[in-house]
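re: that chain from earlier
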Amino acid sequence: MREILARRIMVIVTLSLLALIVLAAAPGQASAQNLEPVSVIVFPGGFNWPIWVAQEKGYFAKGGIEVKLTPTPNSVFQLTNLIEGKFDIGVTAIDNVIAYMEGQGEASISMQPDLFVFMGGDNGLLSLAVLPEITTYQDLKGKTLSVDAITTGYAFVLFDLLKRNGLKMGDYNVVKAGGVLARWEALKERKHDGTMLLAPFDILAKANGLNILQYAIDVYGEYQGLSGATRRSWATENPKKLDAYIRGYREGLAWLFDPKNKEQAIAILRKNLPQLSEGLASQSYSVLVNPKGFASDGALNIEGVRRVLALRSEYGEPKKTLTDPMRYYDPKYYEAANR
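^ sequence. v structure.
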């Protein structure tokens, strides 16, 4: 009888302990299940590396959000859908934001956009890639060059590099071929003679025997490329989500820039870009994870924005003189996340 009673007591104690363990774990489980979704539309490519790290390492989850990425085929799809509220955040060339805010966008839109940039990303990582037989700018005379959009993004960088090297509009043909992934595929298949690529596509280009005529940063010194953008209305309604995104992205950057994480970082890159060999992925690390690649703190380069504005003032239509970076940038969210 005593043995039976002892066993019953042991069962009750064991069940009580299990219940306590479950209760203790419940808050964490509930937290994981109650992450707030944040939809982010991006161009496909290695420049999303900090986001992939933040997703895998739980840096976004730590802030209570789940970042869901959608690759965009081109800038028109990205910007029109961001403006219409179908996505929360866009990682895009700051020139795209400026263009649509100034009524110079590639596509007509049904509403006045309220876009702004809240953080930086990189210097554009831009290179002019061409077919193997093209070795000088003069070789591009009469050739066909591809862009995402003719009036936004990095098209003005292409036009400016050509102009600086003696080629004016009409000396070459321009076709719209979509985002950088689509343009890379088209160039590789020799559908066009040249295009602007973003790293690490330049590494792939070299590995496939293509030529890099010039790197934009070597010409401009300062240039603001990819940036984090959203709508002012969404940011006002979701300051905690935006704060969590900025903090998570910055933690992803900090982890990437820690040399001891290099091997694991390369594994994350190849997981998301399986077409990269070990060697190409290692080269991508060298290009992107350095002071000339990602902005190590995610800050916006104001002088780089001035360069973007100068190019837009020269090539944008209708003609406008644009000089004020702060018209498109609100630093308060970045500064709050940096405290």
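The beta strands are 36-42, 65-71, 89-93, 115-119, 126-130, 144-147, 173-176, 194-198, 211-215, 226-231.
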